[in-house]
Amino acid sequence: LAKALYNSICDQFECACFLFNVRKISDQEEGLVHLQKMLLSELLGEEKIKVRSVEKGITMIKERLRERKVLIVLDDVDKTEQLKALAGECDWFSQETRIVITTRDKYLLTAHEIEKIYEMKLLSDPESLLLFCWNAFKMRRPKANYEDLSNQAIHYAQ
């Protein structure tokens, strides 16, 4: 859903960046610095951005993006440190900037004083099965002999 939103509105901004798997990448060594480099590089259109620390990255984001109308999507955020390093405060960006954050932790958003929160509804069982089958089998239905296992998987994952 976040990627579909991004694709449908990104052309309304000076520049846009979709950072996938923030949780996973930030857990790696120098992960937050890497994410800051990716963000700055994508938004500024510069290949070799040098960020030496999270604090330097914060300063660069504030200074270089403050006057721009940007769209940022942070996918799968799970820690406040990630938000502080990538989208710290409202005064970092112009009022025309939009930041979309996907997370499983609603408290994370309220703690960061996010104003507008959209809570996703669970898919129905038929919708879940269809989504699972397209990703697992590249078809609408489970392969023969995989029906029960597929249903167990969607119920487990909700």
Automatic annotation (TrEMBL):
Q: Which residues form the NB-ARC domain?
A: 29-140
Q: Which GO terms describe its molecular function?
A: ADP binding
What is the name of the protein in this document?
Answer: Resistance protein
InterPro entries the record matches: Disease_R_plants (IPR044974), NB-ARC (IPR002182), P-loop_NTPase (IPR027417)
Superkingdom: Eukaryota
Which SUPFAM superfamilies would you find in this protein's record? P-loop containing nucleoside triphosphate hydrolases (SSF52540)
Pfam families, A to Z: NB-ARC
Natural source organism: Arachis cardenasii
PANTHER family in the record, alphabetically?
Answer: ADP-RIBOSYL CYCLASE_CYCLIC ADP-RIBOSE HYDROLASE, LEUCINE-RICH REPEAT-CONTAINING PROTEIN
Provide a GO biological process annotation.
Answer: defense response
